[in-house]
Amino acid sequence: MSARTALPLLLVAAGLQAAAPAAAQFAAAISPPRFEIDAQPGKTTRSVIEIAHAGSTPGRYKFYTADWSMNPAGELDFRTGLGPDGAGCRPWVAVERREATIPPASKLRYRFEVTPPPGAAPQECRFAIMIESAEPTATGGVGNFPMSGRLAVIVYARVG
Fold first, then answer.
1. CA-based diameter of the chain, in Å?
2. pLDDT tens, 10-22?
3. What sign does the CA torsion over 59, 32, 83, 120 have?
4. CB 112 within 8 Å of CB 93
């Protein structure tokens, strides 16, 4: 192998090695990755997400809801602010807690509920429950860029 071809391979290997510690910091897996629920006006529908933390140190995670849409290129756009009219079903969603620490190699059963108000019109709506690192971690190596992992559990709700 010539020095000309070896240098790019060494740079790629160094980049992968530098990124490895950051990847180890976010060690969450979720089940199920999406929900399809039926909700009745004035009644509460409860669901549970199981979060498995595979890290060797405790994992700190934060939770919040977001609206989402897909652009023409097929990319997802998550928004945490409510629209000007407050449309959608996120105002009806309650999450169990905003932050949690999961011990090494453990699972957390995380609950959320949807309660459409009495008299809500029949509709379909969607939202996401976001699960992300509570604190960004440094990648190490050149630049020491802070990174954060994030997962989205997609929820489709049929009301009425």
1. 73
2. 333 333 333 444 3
3. negative
4. yes
Token reading at 41? 């006006």
With a CB cutoff of 8 Å and minimum separation 6, the contacts of 85 are none
pLDDT in tens, 27-57: 899 999 999 999 999 999 999 999 999 988 8
User: Nearest CA to 152 among 80, 45, 73, 53?
Assistant: 80
| Strand 150-159 versus strand 34-39 pairing type | parallel
Provide CB contacts within 8 A for 135, sequence distance 6+.
60, 148
Residue with structure tokens 């180890």? Answer: 24
The C-alpha angle 71, 77, 81, rounded to 5 degrees, equals 130
CA pair distance 75, 53, nearest whole angstrom: 27
